[in-house]
Amino acid sequence: MVVVLGLAVVLAGPFLIPVSPLQGMLPAKALGDEDSQFILINGLEIHVKMMGEGEPVFVLLHGFAASLYSWQAVMEPLSQFGTVIAFDRPGFGLSERPLAWQGQNPYSPENQVALVLGLLDHFGVQQAILVGNSAGGTVSMQVALEHPERVSALILADPAVYNGGGAPRWIQPLLASPQVRHLGPLIARQILNRGPELIQLAWHNPALLSQDMLKDYQKPFEVENWDKALWEFTLASRPTDLPERLDELTLPTLVITGDDDRIVPTTDTIRLANELANASLVVIADAGHLPQEEQPQLFMEAVRNFLNKIQP
Question: Given this model, what pLDDT does residue 26 score?
Answer without folding.
Answer: 94
